[in-house]
Amino acid sequence: xxxxxxxxxxxxxxxxxxxxxxxxxxxxxxxxxxxxxxxxxxxxxxxxxxxxxxxxxxxxxxxxxxxxxxxxxxxxxxxxxxxxxxxxxxxxxxxxxxxxxxxxxxxxxxxxxxxxxxxxxxxxxxxxxxxxxxxxxxxxxxxxxxxxxxxxxxxxxxxxxxxxxxxxxxxxxxxxxxxxxxxxxxxxxxxxxxxxxxxxxxxxxxxxxxxxxxxxxxxxxxxxxxxxxxxxxxxxxxxxxxxxxxxxxxxxxxxxxxxxx
Length: 261
Hints:
By secondary structure, the protein is α/β, with parallel strands linked by helices. Helix content is 41%, strand content 27%.
């Protein structure tokens, strides 16, 4: 049986012309391969510029790879097949204030992917929207609100609802808890875990917070300079890190915790 997600030799190189006859290349992500099983969570950590967000964007379709391929249930995901990717792999960004269109209502934000990717009737779309809002702990009245009327935690719940609205198999989340206060962050982490248990979702999380990573993920990638330098079972790596960068990340987290305490 095929894995839910298979990634093979995925890489990203950016080119910028600095002179009419000369280009500058930047390797954002060196070749990486991995598999993600159903109902499981992969966390990706690393310093700023390590390539972790680039990998997330490639998986979510926000960027196109320079090499490699992505297969979903054994079938290749083609770059031009937006409907297939949208229905199965959805992405959540760090700041919902910029990823949610402020000029349209929550109802319109949630209805748009349904209009573009399904054959649901108007009544069926409204039913799906209300069901999805309930899943993320919001009342159906929120369809009349606009993003600027909501708190940061509520906006991230809307971003999560937009990701869930097409009933995907995988959610790719790029630092979704970074801008939250500890109480809101705890609620959102528990919500993500509950949704995974209820819906059988698989997650790819980019995060700076190793305490959250320890709590939510099965597998862990540690990245540095566009390369995956350490990978494996999350608890094993965090209990006995082998790479210097992993040890530094753990030390920084411990120091941050000490200062907050």
